[in-house]
Amino acid sequence: MAARIQFARGIDEDVIPDVRITRSKDGSNGTATFYFQNPKALSNNMTEEITGMYLIDDEGEISTREVKAKFVNGQPDAIEAVYLMKSTNEWERFIRFMERYAEENDLGFTKS
Are strands 75-85 and 30-37 parallel, antiparallel or unpaired? Predict the structure, then answer.
């Protein structure tokens, strides 16, 4: 099973997001902010409601309800989703997902 992202169950998002990740100094928690420019989930022919962001891979599913649409001139333009990690285990699980997702979508990873 490929690593994929969905906003409505069963419908994979094709747009590759810009992802910014921060982590506390002690490693106990972190935040991942996903930004999708013109995602399929906001297109006019999408009838499915956005119920959250689901990160799905061989290990299972990670989800967040922190999903907001961004509008430009009254038109949906982007989706911003935030995933909060509250433990080292959640952090490590998220990183495993991102490594799979990045590999399958030819994404680079840069540390700042």
Answer: antiparallel
User: Under 8 Å CB-to-CB from 38, ≥6 apart: which residues?
Assistant: 15, 77, 78
- The model's pTM: 0.91
Instruction: Give domain status of residue 11, yes or no.
Output: yes
**Cβ atoms of residues 46 and 91 within 8 Å:** no
Domain extent for 51? 4-104
Contacts of residue 73, defined as CB under 8 A and 6 or more positions apart, other chains included, come to none
Task: Name the token pair of 109.
Answer: 């990873």
Q: How does pLDDT run across 60-99, given as a tens digit for each residue? A: 999 999 999 999 999 889 999 999 999 999 999 999 999 9
Sign of CA dihedral 28, 60, 81, 53: negative
